[in-house]
């Protein structure tokens, strides 16, 4: 049986896509007042366009800097709500669309929860800039 993540110590989470402040998703989920924005941040990995949202892979040969936002929360229920939204089931990792992992953030240097895409990706879907907002703004102009 898969081990469940330890949610008792770490109270930070990173968003790199549709949960970022520029999008209405946190408000739609009723989480906007349960998360406190800390700062912009960067993490190492590769960002992929999955259609309506991006997916992050952290285990890659060539990693890029991915633009993201760091949030703090005090209510551990936030993670359970995010798990549901991200289709993450700690008891069935293989079937989960995303996995929640505690990773080291590149800047600022801190450990935080991040949702990692748990399915195969096409290299042709790589977001070269590592910035989902910039990618969408550029795609809208084409």
List keywords for this structure.
142 residues; single chain; six-stranded mixed β-sheet; disordered N terminus; alpha+beta
Outline of the structure:
It contains three helices and six strands. The protein is α+β, with helices and mostly antiparallel strands.
Description:
The chain is α+β, with helices and mostly antiparallel strands and 142 residues long. The chain is built from 3 helices and 6 strands; from the N terminus they run βαβββαββα. It has helices at 25-28, 77-85, 132-141; strands at residues 12-15, 36-49, 54-57, 64-72, 98-105, 110-117. The chain has a 6-stranded mixed beta sheet with strand order 3-2-4-1-6-5, with no helix packed on it. The termini are far apart. Residues 1-8 have low confidence and may be disordered.
Q: Rounded to an integer, what's the Rg over CA atoms?
A: 14 Å
Indicate the overall shape.
globular
Strand order of the largest sheet: 3-2-4-1-6-5
Question: CA-to-CA gap between the ends?
Answer: 47 Å
| Total DSSP E strands | 6
Largest sheet geometry: 6 strands, mixed
Order of helices and strands: EHEEEHEEH
Number of helices: 3
Strand content: 25-35%
Oligomer: single chain
Mean pLDDT: 89
Q: By helix and strand content, what is the structural category?
A: alpha+beta
- In the predicted model, the low-confidence regions spanning at least 5 consecutive residues are 1-8
Give the proportion of residues in helices.
10-25%
């Amino acid at each position: 049986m898969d081990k469940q993540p330890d949610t008792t110590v770490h109270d930070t989470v990173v968003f790199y896509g549709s949960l970022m402040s520029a999008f209405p998703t946190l408000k739609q989920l009723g989480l906007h007042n349960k998360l406190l924005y800390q700062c912009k941040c960067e993490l190492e990995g590769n960002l992929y366009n999955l259609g309506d949202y991006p997916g992050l892979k952290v285990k890659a040969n060539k990693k890029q800097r991915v633009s993201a936002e760091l949030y703090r929360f005090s209510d551990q229920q936030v993670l359970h709500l995010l798990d549901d939204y991200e289709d993450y089931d700690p008891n069935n990792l293989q079937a989960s669309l995303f996995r929640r992992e505690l990773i080291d953030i590149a800047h600022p240097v801190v450990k935080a929860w991040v949702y990692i895409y748990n399915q195969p990706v096409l290299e042709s879907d790589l977001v070269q800039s590592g910035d989902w907002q910039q990618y969408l703004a550029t795609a809208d102009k084409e």
